[in-house]
Automatic annotation (TrEMBL):
This is Protein of uncharacterized function (DUF3757). Residues 1-24 form the signal peptide. It comes from Pandoraea pnomenusa. The keyword Signal applies. Pfam families: DUF3757 (PF12582). Keywords: Signal.
Length: 154
């Protein structure tokens, strides 16, 4: 990463640190869409552990007719459900045809996340009665979020 990108990522991380309940004593890592370099030529074989959290990023099987190597980042998508936001995927364009979806797969299967406040690459829109959050950025690493802290049920 360039120095400027590291500074940007550190600033966003500082703004987004989300702590779990105090009795847990652990911080949940800020996440970002995987870089195009991380995906490389792995295509639908791509997996990568989440940052400082249990779970992984995992490429979905390619749609019929989709093929090629990742050449650009399209966007990240999250869906609003009630008062929660659930991250779904990061989308990348392939050089031959189609797109590669990289799914957010936390171990808990709970995709509830917190998006950064203030000026960010995330925008909110409505589509087919759903609240949709879209992150469009020149680099996927700019699409950051944090897993939502959940109280433990003891």
């Amino acid at each position: 990463m360039e120095h400027r990108e590291l500074v940007w990522a550190a600033l966003l991380a500082a703004l987004m640190v989300v702590a779990t309940p105090s009795h847990a004593g652990v911080q949940v890592g800020v996440q970002r869409c995987p870089s195009m370099e991380d995906i490389g030529g792995k295509g639908e074989e791509f997996t990568q552990p989440l940052l400082e959290a249990e779970g992984e990023w995992r490429a979905a099987p390619l749609a019929k007719g989709a093929r090629g190597r990742v050449v650009s980042f399209v966007n990240a998508l999250a869906i609003g459900e009630g008062d929660e936001v659930r991250l779904q995927k990061c989308v990348y364009k392939l050089d031959v045809s189609g797109e590669l979806d990289v799914l957010y797969e936390p171990v808990s299967k709970d995709r509830a996340v917190r998006l950064p406040s203030g000026p960010t690459s995330w925008t909110q829109t409505s589509f087919a009665g759903l609240t949709v959050f879209v992150c469009e950025a020149a680099k996927p690493e700019r699409c950051v979020f944090a897993p939502a802290a959940r109280p433990r049920s003891d």
